[in-house]
């Protein structure tokens, strides 16, 4: 069994250190288990309208501040998984109470659960679609109104059409944008600078037309992102070969984000390898190609991620963690320790071609315990004290990592 050192970073030249710059400060966290049960999804919302953010995960919601457990619905368990792969919070029916949208893999459906409101009682489930399976999904802005109110699932089946969903005039509307899905990974961003968000996939991107609601497929632009297999850090060069997962399916990304990493005015892409080792950013060159740069290859199954400013410097950081037993023992590194981290990046001078002139600094939230990344990780100020906390769920349990930056001596919730 290979256990990676928690302080190693792959393919990073620490030019800043050579020039005498100090390492950025870490953030202290207090990790709390909310529930030891099985699950991999999480979202937050003020479920009971008491002004406090509650936690929602799979079959239950947890009432703040003591995280009292309340039922949502019963979900089937099969093949080592609870059949729920995304929880999204949204007031679907506009009654002022936050509802929950859930995505299944084995049942192939998407449902929304109506919040029973002040009266309490059953959360009634209504089906939105039945064409999955969905491995993960998120809320995005695909009608370009500045609000992330559209559903974008990653249909994990080649013959399932790529689609997004909106709720309009009291109905769910499915917009099919391609006759097939394009592999493991999904994202949204304006690729061509026309002001409209496009859909990113591991094999290319789907260009949003002027009328995003018009019938017909979006133009597909094939792209391989320059992807190359990322071996575990420390692997001798003569032993580097694609893992079984890479040979089987090529790049299996998690969430894909489009943003300018190195400050050259061109949008780059950053993602994790959901079922293999490594996370990477893809530098967009002047000719429109993308070059892969490794951020970290010391751990595997970087399935869930979120971009958020953790340290208040005005630049988003990458929050990401190792999923526990994603394929029940079948992925590279599954039996190695889980962890959850946040990565910040800095331009370095002189620029190094080895990593695109960018240095990535890994900050450990938790390592070697039970908290990992699951298929969803939420970064939000859940206790209202002014700093960003992290919530995630895994087959190893549901966890809250409380940021102690502004509450080291007094927690405003206690």
UniProtKB/TrEMBL annotation:
Pfam families: FG-GAP_3 (PF13517). InterPro entries: FG-GAP, Integrin_alpha_N. Keywords: Signal. It comes from the Bacteria. This is Repeat domain-containing protein.
């Amino acid at each position: 069994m290979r256990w990676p050192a928690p302080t190693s970073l792959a393919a990073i030249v620490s030019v800043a250190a050579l020039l005498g710059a100090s390492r950025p400060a870490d953030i202290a966290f207090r990790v709390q288990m909310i529930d030891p049960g099985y699950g991999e999804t999480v979202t937050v919302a003020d479920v009971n309208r008491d002004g406090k953010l509650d936690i929602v995960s799979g079959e239950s919601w947890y009432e703040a501040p003591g995280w009292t457990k309340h039922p949502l619905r019963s979900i089937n368990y099969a093949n080592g998984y609870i059949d729920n792969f995304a929880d999204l919070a949204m007031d679907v029916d506009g009654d002022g109470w936050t509802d929950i949208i859930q995505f299944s893999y084995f049942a192939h459906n998407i449902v929304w659960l109506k919040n029973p409101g002040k009266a309490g009682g059953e959360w009634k489930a209504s089906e939105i679609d039945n064409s999955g399976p969905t491995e993960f999904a998120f809320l995005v802005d695909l009608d370009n109104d500045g609000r992330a109110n559209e559903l974008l699932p990653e249909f994990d089946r080649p013959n399932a059409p790529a689609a997004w969903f909106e709720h309009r005039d009291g109905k769910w509307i499915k917009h099919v944008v391609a006759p097939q899905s394009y592999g493991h990974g999904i994202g949204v961003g304006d690729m061509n600078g026309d002001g409209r968000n496009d859909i990113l996939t591991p094999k290319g991107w789907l260009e949003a037309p002027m009328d995003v609601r018009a019938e017909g497929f979006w133009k597909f632009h094939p792209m391989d992102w320059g992807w190359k297999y990322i071996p575990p850090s420390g692997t001798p060069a003569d032993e580097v070969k694609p893992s079984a997962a890479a040979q089987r399916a090529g790049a299996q990304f998690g969430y894909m984000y489009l943003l300018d990493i190195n400050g050259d005015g061109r949008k780059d892409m950053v993602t994790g390898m959901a079922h293999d080792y490594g996370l990477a950013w893809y530098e967009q060159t002047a000719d429109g190609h993308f070059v892969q740069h490794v951020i970290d290859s010391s751990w595997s199954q970087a399935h869930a991620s979120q971009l958020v400013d953790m340290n208040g410097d005005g630049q988003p950081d990458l929050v990401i963690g190792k999923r526990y037993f994603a394929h029940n023992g079948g992925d590279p590194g599954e039996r190695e320790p889980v962890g959850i981290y946040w990565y910040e990046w800095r331009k370095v001078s002189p620029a190094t071609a080895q990593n695109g002139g960018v240095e990535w600094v890994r900050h450990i939230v938790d390592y070697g315990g039970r908290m990992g990344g699951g298929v969803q990780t939420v970064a939000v100020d859940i206790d209202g004290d002014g700093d960003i906390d992290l919530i995630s769920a895994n087959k190893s349990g549901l966890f809250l990592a409380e940021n102690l930056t502004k509450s080291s001596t007094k927690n405003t919730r206690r």
